[in-house]
Specification:
6 helices, three-stranded antiparallel sheet, 298 residues, nine-stranded mixed sheet, alpha+beta, 27% strand
């Protein structure tokens, strides 16, 4: 049992916010603690997450021990571009699955993160510790990982409110009709192939901004900015305009030139506000050797 004393900075905020801020928990987990009766007032009255707290008030907070994730840390190969007490920015190689899923119960990025940063296992109530967004296994590049519950909550909100800058470099077949444009087409589950996505009127809004950097020999090297974050968004949109990505055997009928499952798609630029200081941070990652090698060969 811990004691929470409300200071002037917390005064006027919701109780779930105060609990989240004080103990570094996600807002959702703090809310569940209050609803479950783990947060009590000195008066003994039943509390609601939405109650506004006042300076000087004291609450008892019963924090259960961290839930065991059932994941064994593993030494997995990935790059760390930056880390501090709140965030980790990683450079994910192609072929690495982000989190455990059917067919990929070992050797994921999550396993590797727990190996290098064991404290991630203490993020209560989180099944995918630190993960606030993901890249496809066949895509390489930058991802931000939360290192605390507070950072995870802030980053979740930033992605939801589209305040995170995401830019990708890609190589597609052919040449788009325009050198730069917005592709605004809804994306949803393909009604005929449930493991694929497709452009369809029943889908959710999806917007990709692209710019052709150069074209030649039947290819176009493009830069894409995501204004939304739908599954396979760039791959689906570029295929829909007749320019599928090189290496993409799901949304193209052309064979892949790569030995391993790999799409020519790289998250090269990532920017976001730091969850604690609110300072704008920006990171870049150059194209990996397999992609630069293909460009030289062509």
């Amino acid at each position: 049992m811990y004691e929470l004393t409300i200071n002037d900075d917390m005064a006027g905020h919701r109780l779930d916010f105060a609990v989240s801020r004080e103990f570094g928990l996600s807002r959702a987990y703090s809310l569940s603690l209050i609803k479950g009766g783990n947060v009590t007032a000195r008066t003994g009255r039943r509390l609601k997450p939405s109650v506004k707290v006042l300076a000087g008030e004291r609450y008892g907070v019963d924090l259960p021990p961290p839930r065991k994730l059932g994941l064994e840390p593993e030494d997995v190969d990935f790059g760390v571009v930056y880390s501090d007490e709140d965030v980790i920015v990683v450079n994910k190689p192609a072929g690495l699955v982000v989190h455990p899923a059917p067919g990929h119960w070992r050797g994921t990025l999550v396993h590797g993160l727990l190996y290098r940063f064991p404290e991630l296992g203490n993020l209560n109530g989180v099944e995918r510790p630190g993960i606030v967004h993901r890249l496809d296994a066949t895509t390489s590049g930058l991802m931000v990982v939360a290192r605390s519950g507070l950072a995870q909550e802030k980053l979740w909100s930033a992605f939801k409110e589209r305040r995170v800058g995401k830019e990708y470099l890609a190589l597609c077949f052919g040449a788009p009709l325009r050198k730069s444009a917005l592709i605004d087409m809804p994306i949803g589950r393909d009604p005929l192939h449930r493991r694929r996505m497709s452009v369809n009127s029943e889908g959710r809004g999806a917007v990709t901004e692209y710019e052709v950097l150069w074209s030649g020999k039947g290819y176009s090297f493009i830069k894409c900015r995501l204004r939304t974050g739908r599954t396979h968004q760039i791959r689906v949109h570029m295929s829909a305009v007749g320019c599928p990505l090189v290496g993409d055997t799901v949304y193209s009928n052309r064979p892949s030139p790569f030995d391993a499952p790999r799409v020519f798609l790289h998250s090269w630029r990532l920017s976001f506000n730091h969850p604690r200081s609110d300072e704008r941070m920006e990171f870049r990652a150059v194209l990996p050797d397999d992609l630069t090698g293909f460009l030289r060969a062509e």
